[in-house]
Amino acid sequence: MPKSDKINYSNPSGFPEFLPGEKRLESYLMDTIRKVYESYGFTPIETPAVERLEVLQAKGNQGDNIIYGISPILPPNKQAEKEESGKSKSDDNNSEARALKFDQTVPLAAYIARNSNNLTFPFARYQMDVVFRGERAKDGRFRQFRQCDIDVIARRELSLLYDAQMPAIISEIFEAVNIGDFLIRINNRKVLTGFFQSVGVTEDKIKTCVGIIDNLEKIGEAKVKKELELEGISAEKTDKIIEFVNIKGSVDQVLSKLKHLAESMAEAEQFKLGLNELETVISGVRDLGVADNRYCIDLAIARGLDYYTGTVYETTLLGHEALGSICSGGRYEELVGTFLGEKMPGVGISIGLTRLMSRLLKADILKTLPATPAQVMVVNLQAELMPLYLKVSQQLRRSGINVITSFDKRGLGKQFQAADKQGIQFCVIIGADEAAAEKSSLKDLKSGEQIEVSLDKLAEEIKQRLS
Predict the structure, then answer these.
(1) What is the helix (H) or strand (E) element at residue 218, kind and residue range?
(2) Where are the alpha helices (DSSP H) in 337-449?
(3) What is the mean pLDDT of the chain?
């Protein structure tokens, strides 16, 4: 093939691919997350990668700028499609347009609408799917990435104890993957909006103010003040807002300060409601045994998305705050009921696993796993001994040991090199003399040690050394 005709097989920008060690790390993280999710009774579901465009736009067009529309390279047989779906020729509207899902939440709402009669509420689900966003790819931000979400959805009422479970789940996950100290920052949107009301911020400005405060950590206090003033918030009100979100201390100290503040506030109904919810959640977090150093109340946490209405969370890796939130979420009231036309409150969290893994690898907080899950290689010394190599390999596998059998006849040194390159620790060596004596040599590639082991004790010896 002439050079000019070569196909460009470079990776499309923003669409990650993993080497074996990276993919094994992702699988390990997913298994760890799944185990914690399921320990709290969350059940897995799967929604299509493709949804109708009108479904994905149901949140008020929040995803329009990032939605990937799809269409076949060759036009489908529209007439056959319409006849199959029972639609007329004239019914050529947005319901025919389809796109890739950009998050898990809107598809969850559609899933519940489609399957509500087959579900038991409160419905607790987890989903660890790939989503797609048509935004500019840059470091740590991808066009295709995996999200690990949980949500609990109820009809009409949802206990705040579900909100309390979320920090317990976050804490267990990050303690299990051992990435260092982290802090789960908890707030309640009603506390924020109630405070804004009390200082005289008009209703039409409150959502904008919440979004500005949510950027406090990113842009700094001076820029937040400037943006609030540009929205028509007076310098006096701005100072009060900044002073409020900077209230610090232990959980009990912050709650005490908020209670004291509520006593002197005008129009404090919303504020007091949020404060009561926050106290209930904190009490539940304590009852669930989450360590005091793992969470705090942070009044600057707002979660800029409009649909959050109560408890909100952001998790920060201490010492690596520049990574941003490594797990976030909150409570919402109206989002999931969009398609059924009823109140369906929910609470959930999301771990953007692809982004998180990428950043933790670059920060040297995580390491990739060995390229293969195999722990042992049975090397190939003599072709006529292959039946024995296969038998020994199977015996080791039945003992719970992952094994690669070397089928290619190469020098022993090259087989050792191949095993070491893949991260395999042990090699089993059986020549004619060992076979006759029903023994083997076991070489530890990490330490260089080589010992003689009888074949009937081989699995036991390897398992002991692996442990």
Answers:
(1) helix 216-219
(2) 353-362, 386-398, 412-421, 432-436
(3) 90
The helix (H) or strand (E) run that includes residue 378 is strand 376-378
Name the residue among 415, 446, 420 with its Cα closest to residue 430: 415
pLDDT for the residue numbered 92: 45
Tens-digit pLDDT profile for residues 140-189: 789 999 999 999 999 999 999 999 999 999 999 999 999 999 999 999 99
pLDDT band of 310, cuts 50, 70, 90: very high
What does the pLDDT read at residue 201?
A: 83
Nearest to 410 by CA among 387, 442, 377, 388: 377
d(CA 370, CA 422) in angstroms, rounded, equals 6
Could you give the CA distance from residue 331 to residue 161 in angstroms, rounded to a whole number? Answer: 12
Residue whose token pair is 């979320």: 166
* 38-48: average pLDDT: 97
Which tokens in the block code for residue 198?
């009390």
Q: In what order do the strands lie in the sheet with 439-444?
A: 403-405, 376-378, 426-429, 439-444, 450-454
Total length of the chain? 467
CB of 54 within 8 A of CB of 94? Answer: yes
Q: Quick one: tokens of 94?
A: 């947005």
pLDDT tens, position by position, 67-114: 999 887 766 565 555 555 555 443 445 567 999 999 998 899 999 999
CB 312, CB 300: distance < 8 Å: no
> At 349, which helix (H) or strand (E)?
strand 346-352
**What per-residue confidence (pLDDT) applies to 91?**
43
- Which DSSP string do the residues of 162-190 spell out, in sequence order? HHHHHHHHHHHHHHHHT---EEEEEEEHH
